[in-house]
Design a protein that fits this description.
The protein is of the alpha/beta class. Among the domains are: 151 residues, no CATH class; 55 residues, no CATH class. It contains seven helices and 20 strands. Strands 1-3-2-6-8-10-12-14-16-18-20 form an eleven-stranded mixed β-sheet, with helices on one face. It has a nine-stranded mixed β-sheet with strand order 4-5-7-9-11-13-15-17-19. Helix 5 packs across helix 6. The model has no long low-confidence stretch (mean pLDDT 89).
Length: 370
């Protein structure tokens, strides 16, 4: 039975969030919606899942104090320092999946910015306990009435020994917004994480930074889909540290620019015997405008680390475009099909409803409708 701790999101807000993966509470193991600077809604349908406002979790569990800022220095930069100033009254969610649980339905976590020119500072902590298994869907959105604002978020995720977490995240901000997002994750022995991140909608400037730490036997796979229409700048900096023996990781980034700027730096560090990893950074330019700057980097600190990478940037094949148009497609339809093939959405193991929304967003972004 679904337990709703709050029920203050409107039908209009639900419709807005549906575009980034939202479904009714009864279809999810747990739900949390943050609106502006408050936790607006929490719903629970699985006893193995706990969701609390972070401020409440800090009061209820003293050990949460020990893991807060456990994966990042509060003084790392000015944005994190500003967020850390509010650590005694933080805004964000705390998610916990109990030891050994096999959660049948996904957990969904969403952020809305509804205040015009609003500023958000969110700190989220997730703990997946030993041998637990869960799927997560998260998303961010703004109403059409909001054109500008500033969002800063920090997520710290802890996977205990043998835990498994599969996640999909879709971000849809406003065209004049500035976004800074920081993600830190720790995978203990034999834990496994699969992450798919989708960033398609126009945004003035989005700076994202992620760090993953993998212990013995842990595996991490992440796929990132990036689209930058004209006027959008995306700056990404990611690092995966293979700290324990036999840790493995694969990181795939697919970037498409239609006049925007994409800068991507990905680093893979092999720091123990038997570690292995792969970086894939592939870019597609739809016009002569804009640019893609991609730097995959490998760092071997152990003689038995096996690391490799692949990188490419190109434009749409005109022969293929002409062939598809000769078969009866319009130029826009042919371009969208080529983009879909480049992004390889089926391979990303993204839910069908989300794949449909991704292609709708690509078409809308290309046409300027977003």
């Amino acid at each position: 039975m679904t337990t709703s701790l709050r029920d203050d999101i409107t039908l209009e807000e639900k419709a807005l969030l549906a575009g980034v993966g939202y479904e009714e509470d009864s279809e999810r193991a747990g739900t949390c919606v943050l609106v502006d600077q408050e936790v607006r809604h929490i719903g629970l349908a699985d006893n193995a899942v706990e969701i609390l406002p972070l401020a409440e979790a800090l009061r209820r569990y003293d050990w949460v104090q020990d893991i807060m800022f456990g994966l990042i220095d509060p003084d790392e930069d000015e944005h994190i320092a500003e967020l850390a100033e509010s650590r005694h009254a933080p805004v964000g969610h705390f998610v916990r999946v109990l030891e050994g649980a096999k959660v049948r339905l996904p957990i969904q976590l969403f952020t809305l910015l509804e205040a015009p020119q609003g500023r958000q500072f969110h700190h989220n902590i997730t703990v997946i306990e030993k041998d637990a298994e869960v799927e997560m869907i998260s998303g961010s959105a703004v109403p059409r009435s909001v054109h500008a604002g500033h969002h800063v978020s920090l997520s710290e995720t802890y996977l205990a020994e043998g835990a498994v977490c599969r996640s999909v995240s879709i971000e849809q901000w406003a065209s004049n917004m500035e976004v800074h997002s920081y993600a830190r994750s720790f995978l203990d022995r034999n834990a496994h994480a699969t992450d798919s991140v989708i960033q398609l909608a126009p945004v003035s400037r989005h700076v994202s930074q992620s760090r993953r730490y993998l212990e013995e036997g842990a595996t991490g796979n992440d796929q990132t889909i990036i689209y930058a229409p004209s006027g959008t700048t995306r700056i990404m900096d990611s690092e995966t540290l293979l700290k324990g023996q036999g840790a493995r990781a694969e990181s795939i980034t697919r970037m498409v620019t239609a006049g925007g700027v994409i800068s991507n730096r990905s680093t893979l560090v092999g720091d123990a015997a038997g570690t292995s990893g792969f970086l894939g950074c592939n870019g597609l330019k739809l016009t002569d405008e804009g640019e893609i700057f991609s730097v995959p980097a490998l760092r071997a600190l152990n003689a038995q680390a096996q690391l490799s990478h692949e990188a490419s940037i190109g434009m749409i094949d005109q022969d293929r475009l002409s062939y598809l148009m000769a078969s009866g497609m319009s130029e826009d339809q042919a371009r969208d099909l080529i983009i879909q093939g480049f992004l390889n959405l089926d391979e990303q193991k993204i839910p069908e409803t989300v794949r449909v929304e991704v292609m709708r967003m690509i078409a809308a972004a290309r046409s300027g409708a977003l």
